[in-house]
Amino acid sequence: MIGRAFFHAGRMLRETGQALDRLGLRSQNNFVFRDKLSRHRAVMNLYEKRPSMAADVFVAPSASVIGDVILNDGVSVWYGAVVRSDVNPVTIGGYTNIQERAVVHAATSTPTGFKANCSIGSWVSVGQGAVLRACTVEDYCVIGAGSVLLEGSLVEKHAIVEPGSVLPAGGRVPSGEMWGGNPIAFVRKLSKEEAADIEKQANAVADAAKEHQEQFLPYGTTYQLRS
């Protein structure tokens, strides 16, 4: 409660400052403040819930990381992806990638009684458009594009979920196996080469993220439009 009181007090001061700024501009017959600029914030707090990110994390400008989210070394959140934690924590391990338009979030509860937070391990690739809700994905996994993992589901180490698959609440993909379909079903065992390739794939995406990160300055340049 005290934290929220400070938040609202700070917001009031910021809004007062903006109002004074607009008053001053009006007095100079300057209406530049009416420009409609994007209010999107790639990283956003929710009161006392704040994202915690390693120094080398890449969050694309059009992505969203919101609330009680922990992003470890080498994580990349790509364009249009959303990682949201407004009720329970979301934790993402090192060198994991959340690709374009994927959504990762927790829930208030699960029908299975498991924890309603969302935990993704290290060297995991989450494909484009996938939805992960209050589930657990262990290290060295691939979640195919467009897949859906529902509350309380578990994907064990060195496993692959094929694109477009649906893992129901409380469902489980065992280690060393490939599963796919809707409803999801066992496809086959992974070969040693396929299991080893999971880490290589995640590292390749991490390297690509570094190249994208280098294209963005630490601070935005929107203020230059108002000069």
Question: Could you give the topology of this structure?
Answer:
Blueprint: H1 2-27, E1 43-44, E2 52-53, E3 58-59, E4 64-71, E5 76-77, E6 82-92, E7 97-98, E8 103-105, E9 118-120, E10 125-126, E11 131-133, E12 136-137, E13 141-143, E14 148-149, E15 154-155, E16 159-161, E17 166-167, E18 172-173, E19 177-180, E20 185-189, H2 192-213
Parallel strand pairs: 1-4, 2-4, 3-5, 4-6, 5-7, 6-8, 6-9, 7-10, 8-11, 9-12, 10-13, 11-14, 12-15, 13-16, 14-17, 15-18, 16-19
Antiparallel strand pairs: 19-20
Describe this structure as you would to a colleague.
It is a single chain. The protein is an alpha/beta fold and 227 residues long. The protein has one domain: 3 Solenoid (UDP N-Acetylglucosamine Acyltransferase, domain 1). 21% of the residues lie in helices and 29% in strands. It contains two helices and 20 strands. It has helices at residues 2-27, 192-213, and strands spanning 43-44, 52-53, 58-59, 64-71, 76-77, 82-92, 97-98, 103-105, 118-120, 125-126, 131-133, 136-137, 141-143, 148-149, 154-155, 159-161, 166-167, 172-173, 177-180, 185-189. Strands 1, 2, 4, 6, 8, 9, 11, 12, 14, 15, 17 and 18 form a twelve-stranded parallel beta sheet that branches. Strands 3-5-7-10-13-16-19-20 form an eight-stranded mixed beta sheet. β19 and β20 form a beta hairpin. It is elongated, with a radius of gyration of 21 Å. The model has no long low-confidence stretch (mean pLDDT 88). This is Gamma carbonic anhydrase. InterPro entries: LbH_gamma_CA-like, Transf_Hexapept/Carb_Anhydrase, Trimer_LpxA-like_sf. It comes from Diacronema lutheri (Unicellular marine alga).
